[in-house]
Amino acid sequence: MRRWLVSAGFALAGIRYGWASQRNFRIEVTLGTVAVLTAVWVRAPLAPVLLACGLVLSLELLNTALEAVVDLVSPDRHPLAKVAKDAAAGAVLLACAAAVLVGADVLGPPLLHRLGLT
């Protein structure tokens, strides 16, 4: 149990670093919170919303980690460093697009109904 708690502490330090250093992470946490609260308010299924949010936030932290490693290994500009960073950012962008589609599908109809627009 002690080893797990130590590992969890390292993981939480990574999340804290992401929050403190990455503007996009803070934006994504905020939007994810809005999505989860909206799902609760309109009584929509939470699982797809939570999974989409978790995917986006996880990929954002992986992107942050990859950028740190690339900067450590290749402090000067290098074409392959750019490829690594761009591909990781692209993964986050794709996850965000998928999360928006999940949100529209899961939250859209009950939200429109709740607002009296259907």
Characterise the protein shown here.
By secondary structure, the protein is mainly α. The chain has a single domain (2-114), classed as Helix Hairpins (Orthogonal Bundle). Helices cover 88% and strands 0% of the residues. The protein is built from four helices and no strands. The chain has helices at residues 2-21, 23-42, 46-73, 79-114. The longest helix is centred in the C-terminal third of the chain and has 36 residues, at 79-114. The protein starts with a helix and ends with a helix.
What labels would you give this structure?
118 residues; mainly alpha; Helix Hairpins; transmembrane helix; metal ion binding; lipid metabolism
CATH structural architecture: Orthogonal Bundle
Give the SSE order as H and E letters: HHHH
Number of helices: 4
Query: Uncertain segments of ≥5 residues (pLDDT<50)?
Result: none
Structure class: mainly alpha
How far apart, in Å, are the first and last alpha carbons? 52 Å
Task: Give the CA-based shape.
Answer: globular
Subcellular location: Cell membrane
Binding site for substrate: 3, 16-19, 60
Organism: Deinococcus aquiradiocola
Active site: 60 (proton acceptor)
